[in-house]
Amino acid sequence: MAPSETLKKRKFAVLGARSVGKSSLVLQFIDNVWHENYYPTIEEHFNKTVTYNGAKYDCEVIDTAGQDSESILNAKHAIGIHGFVLVYSVTSRTSFDMIQVVYDKIIDFCGVTDIPCVIVGSKVDLTTRQVSAEEGQALAKTNKAAWVETSAKNNLNVAKVFDLVLGEVEKNSPSQQGDPPASRCLLM
Ligand SMILES: Nc1nc2c(ncn2[C@@H]2O[C@H](COP(=O)(O)OP(=O)(O)OP(=O)(O)O)[C@@H](O)[C@H]2O)c(=O)[nH]1
């Protein structure tokens, strides 16, 4: 990197129902590791430098605890966040239904109509599918979000998730030179 070139910082929150594979996705992206065992997450932060459109970005990824429809959105997972990764499992209709719930909580909290976001259908290596690709795409279209299906187990489309969310963030960056607004949330 040229001395004058500054690393752009971007912060992403990974949200979704319990056990959909958020941590597995993040760990595969950050460290290229895969764990079969399930360890519920409280909250973990990771950093990775990625290149997008020839520029280097220092990406902070927040792996959050699983949500349900009763969960209150943690302010830390909306304020100062540039892009959102919303994960459901293609093997769980309930987790798919949670995506709109979480999306709506974020836009309500931030007082905006849409957010830079990628919707992720995880665990496509499993044969017990409950949510079709068409349903995933339709949900993403409704919410003006990017969409992709992944398998953390087989490292399928994992890097693409973060490429897509970075793309959604940079799309909203006016000049694509400066920093885009971080979720446009204000603390009063
Ligand atoms: N077959 C398969 N299993 C997966 C995949 N991703 C995650 N799992 C499994 O699903 C279980 C839950 O994965 P986690 O990554 O811990 O899920 P999480 O969403 O972080 O869970 P919470 O911390 O409770 O929110 C674990 O047993 C993983 O091994 C995948 O791509 N394929």
Automatic annotation (TrEMBL):
Catalytic activity: GTP + H2O = GDP + phosphate + H(+)
GO biological process, one term: signal transduction
Subcellular location: Cell membrane
InterPro entries linked: P-loop_NTPase, Small_GTP-bd, Small_GTPase, Small_GTPase_Ras-type
MF GO annotations: GTP binding; GTPase activity; metal ion binding
GO CC field: plasma membrane
Protein name, as recorded: Ras-domain-containing protein
Topology in the lipid bilayer: Lipid-anchor
UniProt cross-references to SUPFAM superfamilies, sorted A to Z: P-loop containing nucleoside triphosphate hydrolases (SSF52540)
Key words, A-Z: GTP-binding, Hydrolase, Lipoprotein, Magnesium, Membrane, Metal-binding, Methylation, Nucleotide-binding, Prenylation
Naturally occurring in which organism (per UniProt): Cylindrobasidium torrendii FP15055 ss-10
Family: Belongs to the small GTPase superfamily. Rheb family.
Pfam families: Ras (PF00071)
UniProt cross-references to NCBIfam families, sorted A to Z: small_GTP
